[in-house]
Amino acid sequence: MIASLGFLWSYSLILSAIAAPMPNFSPNSLDVRSTDTCADPSLATTFMQVFNRDGITHALGPRAYTISGTTNEGATQWEFQGDIFVAWSTEQEFTVPLYRYDLSNVLEDFQYSTATSIPGWIQRLVIGYVYETQVCGSVPLLGAYNQANTDHYYTTVFNEHSELIAISGWTDAGIAGYVLPLGTGKSNGAFFVT
C-alpha cells in the first residue's frame, strides 16, 4: 500500500508539472534583456585616433568632432590614424564617461579611462560614453604606454596590442573601457548592425 501511495504521489507531481504553463521563450522575449541593459547602438558614432608628430601624442575623439576641430584650428601637426571603435558622444543609459587625462597644461600625453581619477593625472574632459564592463557585444579598449616618449596608444585589436607591448619600450596600460567594434552603430550617416 505504501508503494502504491508513493507511485500516486509521483504520478500526480509529474502531471502537475506537465499541466503547468510553459514559460515564453520566443525570440521576442529573449530580445528584451538586451534592450533593457544595452545602450542603443544606432545612436553610437565612430571614434578615431590621431597622432601629433610634433608632440609625440596620440589622441582619441569622435570622428566628426576630431576632423572639424583639427581643420578649423589649422592643426596641421595632427595625422589621422584611422577609426578604432564605436561609442556614444552623448550620455546614454547603461554607459559611463570615458575621461581624457593629461599630465599638465602642455598636453604632451593623454590617457583615457572610465576611472574618475588617476593619481598624478589631471582630468580634462569627457570624450564619449562607453561601457564599464564587457557587455552587449563590447570589446576592450586596450592601452599601451611608451615611457621614453611619454605616449599612450589605444586599440581594440588584441594581437596588435600584444605585438606592440612585445616591442621594447611599450608596456600594457590596461583597459580604458569597453567599446563597440567598428561596423556597429552609425558611421557617416549609414547604420551598421552586427
TrEMBL record:
Top-level taxonomic group: Eukaryota
Position of the signal peptide: 1-19
InterPro entries recorded: DUF5648
Sequence ranges assigned to domain DUF5648 in this UniProt record: 72-180
Keywords: Signal
Protein name, entry field: DUF5648 domain-containing protein
Organism annotation: Gymnopilus dilepis
Lineage of origin: Eukaryota, Fungi, Dikarya, Basidiomycota, Agaricomycotina
